[in-house]
């Protein structure tokens, strides 16, 4: 876990130092997207090769959707008081 | 939106080629190493670190805005944790890891597939894609019944990019600005949260 964080922090620091260098940032943005495309392709390939995945694909989908619905519901419930606290107060001041 | 479609296409292409065994063996044996994941974490870090507008502009404007991503994190984790009680195959820890993708399906599913299992990676991918799609489809409904901030909460990390146009349209400009900040913070939190939860 420490290694994961180290690489992420190293990236953030590099990004902070390279802020003014638009060419470098544009290169890193393109490299990020390309790596994500490539890794998801490889993730798909490994998943496709795994016999177990074929049988669990349906349940993975159903479980995934259930988790997302519940996560959405939870976050919306907590966002309601925050909305009143931040934005309604501003409106009252106006 | 274009990137989301390309990402989904890449995954499906890989999946189909994998199922029909059309891939060269060296690719299969060497793919998905830890090194590739380290590289991607570094690259994502560079992109986040270089974004000075979002970092400082919003924090200097109002520190209260931090409450938005914070409430989304708490709500998402409680929601994901609760639903795991109803799903036999998934433990609380696994559900929390899937939920803490906050809609950032590309990176969260890659990390989960690498440090946990491909099955859970697949669940994370489908769950977080559906979070984005549900937000895109249901934003008018959410705004009407749960207030203008609700699609920002629903979209999670995707509020700053894919879901931003629909949020701006239905919730207004001020909320759209908050959506960019909240999405940015959640995008930053995702790799930390997923890794932390799975190693806990």
Describe this structure in words.
The complex is a heterodimer of chains A (94) and B (200). In chain A, 93% of the residues lie in helices and 0% in strands. Chain A contains 3 helices and no strands. The N and C termini of chain A lie far apart (48 Å). Chain B has 200 residues and is mainly alpha-helical. Chain B has one domain (31-199). Chain B is 78% helix and 0% strand. Chain B is built from 11 helices and no strands. Chain B is globular and about 55 Å long. The model of chain B has no long low-confidence stretch (mean pLDDT 87). At the A-B interface, helix 1, helix 2 and helix 3 of A face helix 1, helix 3, helix 5, helix 6 and helix 7 of B.
Morphology of chain A: flat
- What is the rounded distance between the termini of chain B? 34 Å
Helices of chain B, by number, come to: 11
Secondary-structure content class of chain A: mainly alpha
Radius of gyration of chain B: 17 Å
Low-confidence stretches of chain A: none
Major sheet of chain A, described briefly? none
Helix content of chain B: over 70%
Shape assignment of chain B: globular
User: In terms of quaternary structure, what is this?
Assistant: heterodimer
Instruction: Classify the beta-strand content of chain B into a percent band.
Output: under 5%
What does the radius of gyration of chain A come to?
21 Å
Average pLDDT of chain A works out at 85
- Secondary structure class of chain B reads mainly alpha
Describe the SSE topology:
The complex is a heterodimer of chains A (94) and B (200).
Chain A: H1 2-17, H2 22-49, H3 51-93
Chain B: H1 2-19, H2 25-30, H3 34-49, H4 52-61, H5 67-84, H6 92-99, H7 105-115, H8 118-146, H9 150-155, H10 164-171, H11 173-199
Helix pairs in contact in B: 5-6, 6-8, 6-11, 7-8, 7-11, 8-10, 10-11
